[in-house]
């Protein structure tokens, strides 16, 4: 591959090139800028600019009709472009949320934004993967950066434990995934998705085994039960903005990757993988809803909430139709917006003596900070899928896809668990609105965090007007995959 | 004839030095025998026409892994006598594992020989006018360039991670400043002192 052929391929990966070259350039710049805090601040701003630039290129400058590059290893279609734009923006939001927290906790180092950029690059490769090797390399680039970010507060025992736990279990899941990939390669004769799809039309037993292992490995990355064990500990131990990042962009990227793997190479084996996704969905919804009821730490609660929400997304995916693809995409987008805002509220829970993260610390928030309390109410109920907030439409379409595919009973179970999950969101909101304040008031959150919470809080209602527009976008994106 | 002699010398060295890795009492010697094993295996690869694999074995295993072992053995205070204490009690289990491995390998070998289609797979796809290093390079840096670059980025992340999680800038550490060392003149460092005999310079 030389000259024009290489240039044609490179023109498809411009957002990735921006991120990769930018990350390496910022790594150099960070070393030479005098003063640790100045370097961190400047590199962080530059990283945000790069992410927004990459998102802009992905949305406005992508070649018409997309295409594939590097012999099918990299797929550019409306599906991957949509996922990329959301992932880049979610990563930029995570950087906005992180800045002030890192400075006050004395963690401000320029490697943080660089690692976020490299993790985002990994996600970007994941959502465009058209080959098992690209899938694995993207996943590993993302995961490795996330392990480091989890342990970024290296002087904290809990953060180190979180990083180590995440790393060991993540390595185990990568092993599962690789074992599955090797079986798939062995029985399909190729690592390329197109060739696997041909082999999947008459699947051998070995291919089914490979599929099970690949799905297990990916289920770990989206923290679907029974591969969820790491989630609460990692969310609790990792620095709060890192947990906010974990809950948003990587979840969406891994879910998009799962959709592509199941619908494209293994599309003909839907009967086989539907059984797996249905079991994963029921377990995740159950563990997410029941586990969250017992939590006293708000970060652990968000972890169980994310496990449960992956369950609802998997309900939609179990439908294995074109509607399933766009419904899950819409659901994940709305989920990312809600969670980013909710973590903004958690980052605002700072008293004069430091951060607090118990649910009872939220008591009386409506009296001391009515605006924050209102935003939190909208965000939590939107994540829970309460009617008349935008999150409701996410759940509605996910269940719609399941019902359309004849999985009425699964949608009913989803509805039941959804009602239970509303209960624990309401338990938090009872503290916020009706309990008497205990402990001191929260100090003023920094402007960056306040803006994110306000904007996402308003979005839970305001996006209702944009639902038709979002629907056309996700349906267009979903049509690239199709069932 | 010459080939057969070279094979038996290399293979014999490999087997004997591999045995010595386990049998040597001194851990440093064990590592040195390990290096000898790698070298003889590299020689065997050259005889098979896989010179790239031979280079890789020498550069990666001898150059990096074995030297790392040597560092670990010499730097860390590992009590090897204590490690070897349970040797006899573990022997049955170890023997069983070794037997299973031999079984698996011979099963693979036998099925390879018996199989009708294995012969086709044996045909080497290397073009005749290329060395195999060149052939591998032309596929790795061409068809798989995307994966190659991505793997490079994964390694970069690993390196950043190691530095972020372990490097601490300590205050009051004296560092080497080569420019200053070079600029230093004789007058700054050397002093000629007239020492009276029997008094010292204290």
From TrEMBL, chain A:
Transmembrane helix is among the record's keywords: yes
Enzyme Commission code: 7.1.1.-
UniProt key word Cell membrane: yes
Annotated membrane topology: Multi-pass membrane protein
Top-level taxon: Bacteria
Every NADH:quinone oxidoreductase/Mrp antiporter transmembrane domain range: 129-420
Record keywords: Cell membrane, Membrane, NAD, Quinone, Translocase, Transmembrane, Transmembrane helix, Transport, Ubiquinone
Regions that span the bilayer: 12-33, 40-61, 81-98, 110-127, 133-152, 164-187, 207-230, 242-263, 275-294, 301-320, 326-349, 370-393, 399-426, 447-471
Oligomer and partners: NDH-1 is composed of 14 different subunits. Subunits NuoA, H, J, K, L, M, N constitute the membrane sector of the complex.
Function: NDH-1 shuttles electrons from NADH, via FMN and iron-sulfur (Fe-S) centers, to quinones in the respiratory chain. The immediate electron acceptor for the enzyme in this species is believed to be ubiquinone. Couples the redox reaction to proton translocation (for every two electrons transferred, four hydrogen ions are translocated across the cytoplasmic membrane), and thus conserves the redox energy in a proton gradient.
Protein family membership: Belongs to the complex I subunit 2 family.
Protein name: NADH-quinone oxidoreductase subunit N
Lineage: Bacteria, Pseudomonadati, Pseudomonadota, Alphaproteobacteria, Maricaulales
The gene coding this protein: nuoN
UniProtKB/TrEMBL annotation, chain B:
Function, as annotated: NDH-1 shuttles electrons from NADH, via FMN and iron-sulfur (Fe-S) centers, to quinones in the respiratory chain. Couples the redox reaction to proton translocation (for every two electrons transferred, four hydrogen ions are translocated across the cytoplasmic membrane), and thus conserves the redox energy in a proton gradient.
Keywords, sorted A to Z: Cell membrane, Membrane, NAD, Quinone, Transmembrane, Transmembrane helix
Keyword Zinc: no
Top EC class, one word: translocase
Entry-linked InterPro entries: NADH_UbQ/plastoQ_OxRdtase_su6, Nuo/plastoQ_OxRdtase_6_NuoJ
Keyword rRNA-binding on entry: no
Annotated protein name in UniProt: NADH-quinone oxidoreductase subunit J
Source organism of this protein record: Glycocaulis albus
Pfam families in UniProt: Oxidored_q3 (PF00499)
């Amino acid at each position: 591959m030389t000259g024009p052929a290489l240039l044609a391929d490179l023109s498809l990966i411009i957002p990735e090139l921006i991120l990769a070259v930018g990350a390496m350039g910022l790594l150099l710049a960070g070393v030479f800028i005098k003063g640790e805090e100045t370097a961190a601040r400047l590199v962080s701003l530059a990283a945000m600019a790069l992410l927004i630039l990459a998102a802009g290129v992905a949305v406005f400058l992508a070649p018409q009709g997309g295409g594939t590059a590097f012999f099918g290893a990299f797929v550019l279609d409306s599906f991957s472009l949509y996922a990329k734009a959301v992932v880049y923006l979610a990563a930029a939001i995570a950087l906005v949320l992180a800045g002030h927290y890192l400075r006050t906790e004395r963690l401000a180092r320029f490697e943080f934004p660089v690692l976020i950029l490299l993790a985002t690059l990994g996600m970007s490769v994941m959502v465009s993967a058209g080959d098992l090797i690209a899938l694995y390399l993207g996943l590993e680039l993302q995961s490795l950066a996330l392990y480091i970010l989890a342990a970024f507060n290296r002087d904290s025992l809990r953060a180190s434990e979180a990083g180590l736990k995440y790393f060991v279990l993540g390595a185990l899941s990568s092993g599962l995934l690789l074992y599955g990939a090797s079986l798939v390669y062995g029985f399909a004769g190729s690592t390329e998705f197109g060739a696997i799809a041909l082999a999947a039309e008459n699947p051998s037993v070995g291919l089914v085994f490979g599929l099970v292992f690949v799905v297990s490995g990916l289920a770990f990355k989206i923290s679907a039960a029974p591969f969820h064990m790491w989630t609460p500990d990692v969310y609790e131990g990792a620095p709060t903005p890192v947990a906010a990042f974990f809950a948003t962009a990587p979840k969406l990227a891994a879910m998009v990757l799962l959709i592509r793997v199941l619908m494209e190479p293994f599309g003909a084996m839907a009967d086989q993988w539907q059984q797996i996704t249905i079991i994963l969905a029921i377990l995740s919804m159950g563990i997410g809803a029941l586990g969250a009821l017992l939590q006293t730490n708000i970060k652990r609660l968000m972890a169980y909430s994310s496990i449960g929400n992956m369950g609802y997304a998997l309900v939609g995916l179990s439908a294995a139709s074109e509607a399933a693809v766009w419904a899950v995409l819409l659901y994940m987008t709305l989920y990312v917006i809600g969670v980013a805002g909710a973590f903004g509220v958690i980052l605002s829970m700072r008293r004069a003596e430091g951060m607090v993260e118990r649910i009872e610390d939220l008591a009386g928030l409506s009296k001391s900070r009515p605006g924050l309390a209102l935003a939190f109410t909208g965000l939590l109920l939107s994540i829970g899928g309460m009617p008349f907030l935008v999150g409701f439409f996410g759940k509605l379409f996910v269940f719609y896809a399941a019902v359309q595919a004849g999985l009425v009973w699964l949608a009913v179970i989803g509805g039941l668990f959804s009602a239970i999950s509303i209960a624990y969101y309401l338990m938090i909101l009872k503290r916020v609105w009706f309990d008497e304040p205990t402990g001191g008031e929260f100090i003023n959150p920094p402007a960056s965090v306040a803006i994110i919470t306000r904007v996402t809080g308003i979005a839970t209602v305001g996006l209702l007007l944009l639902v038709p527009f979002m629907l056309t976008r996700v349906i267009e994106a979903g049509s690239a995959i199709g069932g | 004839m010459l080939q057969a002699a070279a094979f038996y010398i290399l293979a014999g060295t490999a087997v004997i030095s591999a045995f010595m890795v386990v049998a040597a009492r001194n851990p440093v010697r064990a590592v040195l025998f390990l290096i000898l094993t790698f070298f003889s295996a590299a020689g065997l690869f050259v005889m098979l026409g896989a010179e790239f694999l031979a280079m890789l074995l020498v550069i990666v295993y001898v150059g990096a892994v074995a030297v790392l072992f040597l560092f670990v053995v010499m730097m860390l205070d590992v009590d090897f006598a204590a490690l070897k204490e349970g040797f006899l009690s573990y022997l049955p289990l170890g023997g069983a594992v070794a037997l299973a491995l031999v079984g698996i390998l011979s099963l693979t070998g036998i099925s390879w020989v018996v199989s009708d289609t294995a012969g086709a797979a044996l045909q080497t796809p290397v073009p005749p006018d290329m060395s195999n290093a060149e052939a591998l390079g032309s596929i790795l840096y061409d068809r798989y360039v995307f994966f190659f670059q991505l793997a490079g980025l994964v390694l970069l992340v690993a390196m950043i991670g190691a530095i972020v999680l372990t490097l601490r800038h300590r205050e009051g550490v004296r560092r080497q400043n080569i420019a200053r060392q070079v600029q230093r003149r004789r007058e700054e460092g050397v002093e000629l002192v007239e020492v009276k005999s029997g008094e010292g310079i204290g």
